[in-house]
Amino acid sequence: MLLNSDRLTYYFTTLCEIDSPSRGESKLSCYLQDLFHDLGADIVFEDNSSLVTGSDCGNFVARFSGSRNDVDPVFFNCHLDVIKPCLGVKVRKINDIFYSSGDTVLGADDKAGIAILIEVIIAIVLANIPFVPVEFVFTTCEEIGLLGAKAFDPSLLVAKYGYSLDSTGIDNVIVGAPASYGISAEIHGLASHAGLRPQHGINAIQLAAHAVSRLPLGQIDSETTANIGLIAGGTATNIIPDYVRVAGEVRSHNLSKLFSTIDLFKNTFQDVVSSWRDPHNLITSRPSLVFAFPEQYPLMKLEAASLPVVRAQQAASCLSRSVRFIQAGGGSDANFFNACGLPTAILGIGMENVHSVSENIKLADMLRTAELVYSLLTC
Ligand SMILES: [Zn+2]
Fold first, then answer.
1. Is 142 a catalytic residue?
2. DSSP H/E element including 316
3. 164 C-alpha vs ligand 1 centroid, how far in Å?
4. What does the pLDDT read at residue 69?
């Protein structure tokens, strides 16, 4: 295997130092599209997802037809955007570990994945090694709600299964991730002066507090979590608040548990609002509830016989190593690829402390993941 750690270091550092905030990925996208052209991609094309995502570019695909026709075409996915603070990244390398200079994230999430794909395809092309037909799928706006993947048209791909390079840990293959739904409960009460006419008000915040105190939150069971993370309402300390919005989320690896938890949330809010009574019989109106539970991302669950699992096992055994098949607690682009019929596993790429200015990654871990990707393309 002809992987080159200096070249991987060069591309990783270069990618990290190109600004690519969510909705501002075009500079990085142009750099990569030119690079994949130069590396001999058969086609590089961008979709029109920017119309939906509001990014300054679309998702893009680079296709290499390869010369192996004994294995199904495969795709690899990374996201182009980086969580804030991410402008003006300066990479520091200390003892073969990459860090930012401390005032930004590093951007290993997800540029380590992109650099790994670049290194693997260069190594294969330069050595003229037969490889499996492959497509690289680069999405925008992952960090602000998986918007690029959500807007991606799977019929643009030849490959019918793939891998997202976008997780912590090493030798980890993620085969399951929860579905997530947002929770929004808006309670309308009745405003009144808190000191002069308190008996004429309906306190929306108090109703919300009663409801929230009755909700199961945190780890509900082994597959399900729930959280209330936002509350906003009221206008002044001397006014009985006529409005409050409570927002949160429910996640589960089991859809029936997920929907029964959402039902419980809805019924709890509804019960509190419906059972409100006016102790003074002075108010003619009643409090009301507007409850919504928008899908944030769908469930991901790969079977043991699915191609991403089988091929990951084969690729690892070609390297005389084993991989762990595990569940994740969060959503990623892979949830959407799976939901639209493209079985997709997530590979751990070794990034650490992601979404913080202490984010870092070891060169050795990037090389180890690159070996696995190389093996998926050649074994
Ligand atoms: Zn990521």
1. yes
2. helix 307-318
3. 9
4. 87
